Amino acid sequence: ELASGLDSNNFQLNIPKQQITLNSQLWEVEDSVLLIYNLKDEKVYPRLRMQSDSASIHFYSTDADSLHQYICEFDKVFFESLIRGSLIPGYPKGIISGQLSYGLNEDAERKINTDLLFNNIEWNDVGFGVISLDGYLNSDTAGSFEVNMLTRIDSSEIKVEFMQIAEESRSLSTEFSSFPLAVVQPFVKNQVS
To answer: N or C terminus of the chain with fewer C-beta within 10 Å?
Structure first.
């Protein structure tokens, strides 16, 4: 159940019962205010903090250095409590912790940062103890962007660095360390045998 309110400055969306059922999982919501849309600056300010057993999700926004940033923090969240496994081929399972953020400034520059940790992952009958994603992507309206991502899969590492300067030059660097091909086999079994 959702409710809304409107005053001269803000539109507000509320969860009066302070409970959300997400993929058959009941979550308790700390504050009944889900989000606020500021009519003057035309920005959305989410205020969601929810908990189920020992898992929690916090979705909020901040403003700093002309950057409006949306931040989602996960703490011991079972993947299947967020998304029904049958929606994604291979029925992924596991536990997510960490932070994901998306920022946008007045010049339409975008920033995505990730610091996520996935534990006890199963996907396409392949198991992983730990997968971590640590990196960022920055882009602007001129067509420049930069990606720097370090992925760890148990003892393996994949490092990707990519930079494009507004249609002038591009550079790509990748490094693989102790990467077992069995990791990709379930995803390419029709192409490689």
So the answer is: C
What DSSP assignment string belongs to 25-58?
A: EEEEESSSEEEEEETTTTEEEEEEEEEETTEEEE
Amino acid in the structure at residue 140: D
Listed in sequence order, the residues at least 6 apart from 41 whose beta carbon sits closer than 8 Å to its beta carbon are none
CA distances 28 to 46, 49, 74, 95, 103, Å, are 16, 9, 15, 19, 27
For 70, 89, 94, 106, 184, the CA distances from 126, given in Å and listed in that order, are 33, 13, 12, 43, 9
For the stretch 124-166, pLDDT in tens is 788 889 999 999 999 988 888 899 999 998 888 999 999 998 8
- Residue 169 has what pLDDT? 86
For the stretch 87-120, pLDDT in tens is: 888 788 999 999 999 999 888 889 999 999 999 9
Residue among 38, 20, 43, 45 nearest 30 (CA): 20
The token pair that represents 71 in the structure block = 């931040």
Distance CA 137, CA 109 (A): 11
Residues recorded for the chain: 193
